[in-house]
Structure formats: C-alpha cells, structure tokens
Amino acid sequence: MSFNWDRALQKANDLEDDNLSAALQLADRDGRWEALLRPPEVPPGRSETELPLIEGSQRHVMCPDLYRATLSGSINRVDQLLRLTVTEEITRTNDEYHDVEIQFEDIFESNGSHKQLGARVHGYDSCTLQEVTAEENTVLHIAAEHGHLELAKHLIRNDNTLLTSQNSRQETPLHLAARAGNHRIISLIVLLAEESGVGTYEVLMKRSTNGDTVLHEAARHGHEDVVQVLMTVAPSLSAEVNNASMSPLYLAVFRKSVGVVKALLESSHSSAVGPNQQNALHVSVLVSREITSVLIDWKVELAYGKDASGSTPLHYAASNGDITIAGTTVTLSAYGAIFSPQRQDKLKNWKDEAPKWIDRTSTNLIIVSVLIATIAFSAAFNVPGSYNDDGVANLRKKAQYNIFVVLDTIALSASVSATMLLVVAKAVNKWGSWTSFSYSLA
C-alpha cells in the first residue's frame, strides 16, 4: 500500500469506523480509488452537459405503503411490499392483511391506449425497488436521508444499482446522507459499493445538477463527522468546485463551521475558491475571527487574493468595520507574508526610502530639541520674580512658581534625551535607527 492508503487506514481507525476500515481494505484491489486518495494538481472541470440524463420518464411512482415503510425504517414491512406473493399471503393467518383479492389497475394514457401498472393486493402493494417519489428519490435515497442503516444495507444487497441512482436533481443517496449528516450511512455505502463491484469511485464522483459533490453537501451543512469520513476515503474531493465556482472549503467558511474547515485543511491541496474570484478568506473576515486566523496560518497568500472587483480580504474586513479582524489579517499576513512579484518593487522602494527619511527627519528634530533644551536651561537660572539678596527665588512659596519649576525640569530632561536618541538614530544601522527614532518621538 502507498502512503496515501496507510494514512487513510489510520484515519479510519481514529474515527473508529469499522465499515470505513473494511471498505479501505477491499479498495486495495481497486486501482481507481487511488485517484480519490491522490489530490489532483489541477481540479478537473465539469460542464453541465456532462451530467447524467434524468430518467424520470422511465420510472413508476412509488406506492404510498412502500414510502411509509421506508420512511419508518421497517425492513419487514418493506420486504412484504416488495416480495409478497399470493401464496404467502394466504398462509399468513396471524397477519392483519388476510383478505386477499387481486386487482389490476389501468391508467388511460394520452394516446388512448391502456397501460397495466401492476397487481394490487388488498393490504399490500406489489411494489418494486425501481419506484420513485415525486422528486424521483428511490427507497435508498429515503433510507439514507433518515439514517436507517440496516434497511439501507438490506436494500443495497438486494439491488446494488440503487447506489448510483439519481433523483430529479441528480443527487445520489450519498448526497442525501451527507446533507443529513448520517456519517455511518456514508461509510456503509462506501463499503458496499466496493463489495458489490459497483465501485466507490463511481459513487463518490457523482454530481448534482448544481455540480455539488457529496463533500459540498457535507460542508454546506456543517457536518464534521461526514467530512472526516470523506476526507479519509477521497481527499481529492476537497479540490472540486461546483457550478457556482464554490469549493467545499468556501462553503464551510460561509457556514462558520470551524471543525469542518480544519478537517478540510488537512489536505494542502484543498481548494479555497469562491464565486466572483473570491477565496475563502474573503468570507472569513466577515464571519469569524478564529477561521480567519486558521486560514492565514494555512495559506498566508490568501490575504493577497483579489476578487473580480480588485478587493482583497483586508478591504472586506475594513468595509465591515471589524477593526479586530482587520488587525488580525494585517498582523498575521505580515509575519508570514510571501510577497507576490508585483509587490517587490514597492517593498524595495520602501526599504530604500525609509532610512533616508529617518536621517532627514532626525536632523531637523535634533535642531528643535537642542533649542528646547537651551531655553529650558536658561529658564532655570532666570526664574520669574527674580531672586532676593540671599539668592533665593522671591516666588518660591507660590504654587504657580513650583509648577513652573517642575515643568521646566521635565522639558529640559526630555529635550536632552531626545537629542541623544536622535543622534544615535543617525549613527546606528537601519533597524536600530527605527527603534531609537521611535523612542525619541515618544
């Protein structure tokens, strides 16, 4: 096994998911699954024309009894509706449905012909696994959405084509399970898809009419457990974008789900793409300080990404009025920043001009500070009210005089200190000059 297999198995063990571990063991024989574990360098695109055709016109409407039985998760009742024969019904003396009468129902089609739908038995409908609801959901869609683990297993083992069945929105049972947060169902479907020969690749790579993968659904609804399972078996899904140019990471940030974001960031190849050329950081600065810090720590270059209007995440933070997030964005990106090529010229100019500006400003400030020191020193000997014959200030007992003496002393001390620091700033290296210059201004 490759490193990817070993890592996936370790994650499955950490999640304590037996179905997931068993599926990975079986998948060692399926070469296509390696593509799911290996993140692509360039996320593959997909157009709407590549989506499967809707097969609603080829399906029958699900009988109400089968729908109710599936919704309740009753395996026995579903079996009765799908496999009941007249002979079996007659022998069920303890069953409440012992009144047997076969009827045939016809519908009148628009072309004037009649089409026989099937036999109806009082108390039970003669149903099939291929019947669908108004939204074209199969029985497996319903079981997966409502978390009926044993029923889902029973249905798949009777008809494994249900694994890839799609409803009117081209969603598979896996999509509905991911949306509902049923991670055990996800693991089960992955295992049975591999066991049955349908293939996990075919099941996991299905997209809805919106271009959403199962990982999009899990991220959109903030289901961390489902994301953990999917990132174990198919981390490449984190690089996919839907028809709206939204990656799973972008959706997770929009949902403000810190756990899902961290799970997706376990793959360095996860896409942060959003609509209108945004990235996930454009959204995070508006919704969560914690997620903003996590994203910048993961990829600091996101801070320099521009949307279609040329705005960076910092612009978004500033326009939202959140000073804390704006400060976080600036600080974190500064300490880990990798400047893009178009910024190098500005950085070089700043580095060249800053020392020159410090030198010019220091010269002017030295003159000012020396003048202040001279005046303050002179004032100390030429006090208001002059001196008496004993050489003592005449106004020494006045409060105003004492205040003058204190302020004059402060002015003298500060101006002398500033002069010394400014002189040092002109003499030392550029980093020392910044420090000395800053202290002198203070």
Automatic annotation (TrEMBL):
InterPro entries, per database record: Ankyrin_rpt (IPR002110), Ankyrin_rpt-contain_sf (IPR036770), PGG_dom (IPR026961)
GO cellular component terms, A-Z: plasma membrane
Listed transmembrane segments: 365-383, 403-425
Annotated localization: Membrane
Superkingdom, natural source: Eukaryota
Pfam families to which the protein is assigned, alphabetical: Ank_2 (PF12796), PGG (PF13962)
UniProt main location, coarse: membrane
ANK repeat start-end pairs: 135-167, 210-242, 309-337
Coiled-coil region(s): none
Topology in membrane: Multi-pass membrane protein
Keywords, in A-Z order: ANK repeat, Membrane, Repeat, Transmembrane, Transmembrane helix
Domain PGG: 356-427
Protein name per UniProt: PGG domain-containing protein
